[in-house]
């Protein structure tokens, strides 16, 4: 049986805690006075994201690749598996390692959860739906995924991770939760990770033309990171064992997003069109009825508000990077 936690203070392990979403989750849970064990191999995570926490008495950093078994001394109450490169540019750099992170990483964390009698949450993805044939995507949709394409290492890796979580929950007595995360943006997103929001903002701030793939009419739904973190915490605290979509159902074309970013940055940048990558989804829009019903959750930050905050963060980050790269004495 899972260990019963009778105190408000929990020991929470976050795999991938130095990454974009992981570091925002660390901040929220530290603010709630939980003890955080951050595990990261820094393949895509950044020490800058967790620098504010390194001296905090409730924060502990372990540099480790979850493809290898992990042992932790002392109690662990909850585990968030946020580990795995999430942008196509990054996960396609090492596709076999991406597969291993999804499968072996999930397996190793599930075994840790079993030993510690901890509740564990898997950060799955809307990519399990592939290039969807329906709009809205709800949790019962089984997807349209290419098993032999450039995105398969991530899409199929996340699908098999969901299966592992289901099996451990159904047969091994582990308290499992599965979040299907749709496009998310906000502070701590790597400026060079290749995702559309970071690409557009960085290009606009630098006065470069914005790169749009295909016709630009493909759509995405963008959730601000603080909303996502709230959904993850609510899901972890719930009794729901089946997958739950977490995302913002507001749907925008890539051209609409590009125009909005250019206007907000006050840039004169134009748009450059490039061929659409293979298996790039044409449409993303979550059905979040289950999240609303089960978790009482829905996103609160609209796109304009979230973009304004994100643009300011990128402006400061690029200025800091430029200052760090300047020759001494200038």
Task: Based on the model shown, name its key terms.
about 15% strand, globular, two-stranded parallel sheet, alpha/beta, seven-stranded parallel sheet, about 325 residues, disordered N terminus
SSE topology sketch:
Elements: E1 11-15, H1 20-31, E2 35-40, H2 47-50, E3 59-63, E4 78-81, H3 88-91, H4 95-116, E5 119-125, H5 152-171, E6 176-181, E7 184-185, H6 196-205, E8 210-213, E9 219-221, E10 223-224, H7 225-237, E11 244-246, E12 251-253, H8 254-265, E13 271-274, H9 289-295, H10 303-325
Parallel strand pairs: 1-2, 1-4, 2-3, 4-5, 5-6, 6-11, 7-10, 8-13
Antiparallel strand pairs: 9-12
Helix pairs in contact: 1-7, 4-5, 6-8, 6-10, 8-10
Any overview of this molecule?
Strand 2 (35-40), helix 2 and strand 3 form a beta-alpha-beta unit. Residues 1-6 have low confidence and may be disordered. The chain has helices spanning 20-31, 47-50, 88-91, 95-116, 152-171, 196-205, 225-237, 254-265, 289-295, 303-325; strands spanning 11-15, 35-40, 59-63, 78-81, 119-125, 176-181, 184-185, 210-213, 219-221, 223-224, 244-246, 251-253, 271-274. It has 330 residues and is an alpha/beta fold. The protein contains ten helices and 13 strands. The chain has a seven-stranded parallel beta sheet with strand order 3-2-1-4-5-6-11, sandwiched between helices. The chain has a two-stranded parallel sheet with strand order 7-10. Helix 1 (20-31) crosses helix 7 (225-237), helix 4 (95-116) runs parallel beside helix 5 and helix 6 runs parallel beside helix 8.
